[in-house]
Design a protein that fits this description.
It contains 16 helices and 45 strands.
Length: 727
């Protein structure tokens, strides 16, 4: 649960930390900031004793001493065992691994929703079969340690609307990096940049020094050139300085062009900046496999033979010479293995929008402006446009779409719309998970974010599980959709689901304004005047506050109401622009609920829904699409098809969850290996028994070749998949 509180900077030191709690059968690791919980089962039961974090040779936020014989994690986790003295990786274990370590001092990392470490002084055995277990012997003393993946800005910088002052503010972003080695490609080693305020005078704390001042980004002193380099400057820890010809330069005399001549095309400039950022991050991900976490990335094996760069040697270079070697690699030689990027943002070239940059840069979002050559163009969206799209949705459907004889669409009382639109073209979104727009017009083909949404995220007061979900159905004819309430469930992270029917305006106002709700799932009707209630409409624009954190307003024309909910204090949600067929709305609602319960953030869930249903641009995200309701560090989707009576093809793709650009994923099929989030594995073949044992351990969405509907692992029968479906 979350409620708004005071300014994020004022309360930075009072943010609750990750902690350990006895459960009777073991220990719960609780991260109240991210709303996550991991359960360790111990023998015997223990009462964790807090100890200083400095006692653990790892970057952690909490530590506790326990005496036990055994500890188990109720899942098959990736386990990395390191020598505590020099951090050398001794082993990493996946499924069906067992290894015994002699007496010594070790740091053991265990993957999961919270970064977990065991500091062991002595010998132990680790096994990863039905679960992950550690056996220590009688009464061994073990230190449990953990850290949150959450990052918060440490301070604020003030800039004027002068482009050179904006450059100075952006130059301070890199001060948040926790390292300038290739390890910075891990999301947890990139801190949140300082916030930005636009004022009358420039004010930047003296300690906010770029960590690699020998690297400079030279751009013309115009906002449309300054904004796009913000994520690159942050990641490189570089300074941004004025100059006529866009380029990267270093103290060694190296130069790399970011545009042609003193009057470069702005879209070409943006394209070069984006390619540079993606290539640098990607190759540093490959180089870090020599470093602290030596996981054999499949992408490294795929590209190492194509490029004339020693990736191991790259790891040991200082930032400037390392950058020079990386930029000697052409984008084309590695482009097919660079993961899909999480975010591309579109800002107006307005100095006031500089205040959005820290939030975007923290996610390594690409930054584009609206000036000539960008993806945005003003369009008029008429009623005939909406009807044409609706007819396309209905073209191949039949009476199953009719919830009642009088309703084909959700929103039979839709109102005329007075909106200015901005169109985003599909060609610009290749390899981008979510495009976001931060202007005044209504986006088509992108999410609509606001500075308020990000500020709301920082202002939320963290609290403990369970996750509070409110499901509201304000139309009796849609009551069947209340079955989605059963979807919200979790063993280690429980849900508290409340169901409401046919609420009055007063009751719905009380619920939204005063009840602390992690996720609101509204089923019913809406238009620009409000959400329909039993006695009229509730206009969310009249709210003064809200206890809602994230939401799905599954009703027609709920866009304006969703923006109002963000204005009242919510962080992010899914809304609709136009009339939506009832049948489609019901399927979207159920699928979104299942994906969110599985740990998908809003943006990844909506991407899957768009791929599965013909919804066009009717559904979009308002606010922060990175918000997560369930608990998972990755959001996988699997594809499979039958080859013969005992063999299937299998492929995995991983969307980012709360991990971020540079995160790694695998699944418990050893043939798959390790991959960067945003990429897909190669297609492999696997026998049916092995696939069944793997699939039924967790609830995962699955695409089956020859089957139009998205399937789920808990409901899928491999025996019913026919080889002819692949044809």
């Amino acid at each position: 649960m979350s409620t708004p509180t005071s300014d994020p900077i004022e309360r930075a030191e009072s943010v609750p930390r990750v902690r350990f709690e006895p459960t009777g059968a073991g220990v719960a690791v609780v991260d109240p900031i991210e709303g996550r919980r991991d359960v360790l089962r111990t023998r015997p039961s223990v009462d964790p004793e807090p100890v200083p974090t400095e006692s653990v040779p790892a970057p952690v936020g909490a530590a506790a001493r326990v005496e036990l014989d055994r500890v188990g994690v109720g899942r098959i986790a990736l386990v990395i065992v390191r020598d505590a003295a020099d951090w050398t990786t001794l082993a990493h274990l996946e499924e069906n691994g067992t290894e015994t370590f002699p007496p010594g001092e070790y740091v053991v990392e265990v993957s999961g929703p919270i970064k977990l470490y065991l500091h062991v002084e002595g010998g132990f055995t680790v096994s990863t079969d039905e679960e992950t277990r550690f056996e220590f012997g009688s009464g061994a003393a073990v230190t449990l340690a953990a850290r949150s993946n959450h990052n918060r800005p440490a301070t604020t910088v003030t800039t004027t609307d002068d482009p050179e002052d904006l450059m100075a503010a952006i130059s301070a972003f890199g001060s948040a990096l926790k390292t300038t080695t290739p390890e910075r490609s891990w999301p947890t080693l990139r801190g949140h940049p300082p916030l930005v305020e636009v004022g009358d005078e420039r004010s930047i704390p003296g300690e906010l020094v770029p960590p690699s001042p020998e690297v400079r980004l030279v751009v013309p002193p115009r906002v449309e050139f300054v904004y796009p380099v913000a994520p690159l400057a942050y990641y490189l820890g570089a300074r941004v300085v004025p100059g006529a010809t866009p380029r990267i330069e270093t103290d060694e005399g190296f130069e790399y062009p970011l545009g042609a001549g003193p009057s470069p095309d702005e879209r070409e400039f943006e394209r070069r900046v984006e390619r540079t950022l993606r290539r640098v991050v990607f190759l540093e991900c490959l180089a870090r496999t020599k470093g602290l976490t030596q996981l054999p990335l499949r992408e490294r094996a795929d590209v190492e033979g194509r490029i004339d760069v020693d990736l191991d040697a790259l790891y040991d270079l200082d930032p400037a010479p390392r950058l020079r070697r990386i930029l000697s690699v052409s984008h084309e030689s590695v482009a097919d293995r660079i993961p899909d990027w999480e975010l591309a943002s579109h800002l107006a070239p307005d100095p006031q929008q500089a205040e959005l940059l820290p939030y975007l840069v923290a996610d390594l979002a690409l930054v584009r402006t609206r000036s000539g050559g960008t993806a945005a163009a003003n369009v008029d969206r008429t009623e005939s446009d909406q009807l044409a799209e609706l007819n396309e949705l209905l073209r191949n459907e039949d009476e199953v779409l009719l919830r009642s004889s009088g309703s084909v669409v959700r929103g039979d009382d839709a109102t005329d719309l007075d909106r200015d639109y901005v169109q985003f073209h599909d060609g610009e979104s290749d390899g981008i998970l979510e495009e976001i727009w931060a202007g005044d017009a209504t986006p088509i083909g992108a999410s609509h974010t606001t500075q308020e949404a990000y500020r709301n995220r920082l202002r939320r007061e963290p609290s403990d599980p369970p996750i509070d979900v409110a499901v509201v159905c304000n139309d009796p004819e849609m009551a069947a959709e209340l079955g989605t309430a059963d979807i919200y469930d979790g063993e280690d992270l429980p849900f508290d689901v409340r169901i409401y029917r046919d609420l009055s305006t007063a009751a719905l106002r009380t619920l939204i304004e005063h009840q602390e709700t992690d996720f609101l799932h509204y089923i019913g009707h809406a238009n620009t005047e409000g959400l329909r209630c039993s006695d009229g409409r509730l206009d969310l624009g009249t709210l003064t506050k809200t206890g809602v954190n994230a939401f799905l307003l599954n009703a027609c024309q709920s866009y304006e109401q969703g923006l109002s909910l963000i204005g009242a204090g919510a962080v992010g949600g899914v809304v609709t622009l136009d009339p939506v067929p009832d049948r489609v709305a019901a399927l979207v609602g159920e699928t979104m609920a299942r994906l969110l319960n599985a740990g998908y953030p809003l943006r990844s869930a909506l991407r899957v829904v768009r791929d599965e249903f013909v919804i066009g641009n009717d559904y979009l995200i308002v606010g922060d699409g990175g918000i997560v309701v369930g608990q998972s560090s990755v959001a996988p989707i699997y594809s499979l098809g039958r080859v013969d009576s005992d063999t299937f093809t299998f492929q995995a793709k991983w969307y980012p969850s709360n991990t971020g650009v540079g995160g790694v994923a695998t699944c418990h099929l050893e043939e798959i290996g390790y991959h960067l989030l945003g990429n897909s594995s190669p297609e492999i073949t696997v026998d049916q028994e092995k696939l069944e044992n793997f699939l039924y351990r967790e609830e995962v969405p699955i695409r089956v070749k020859g089957v139009s509907d998205l399937c789920w692992s808990s409901e899928l029968s491999l025996d019913e998949i026919d080889v002819h479906q692949n044809q």
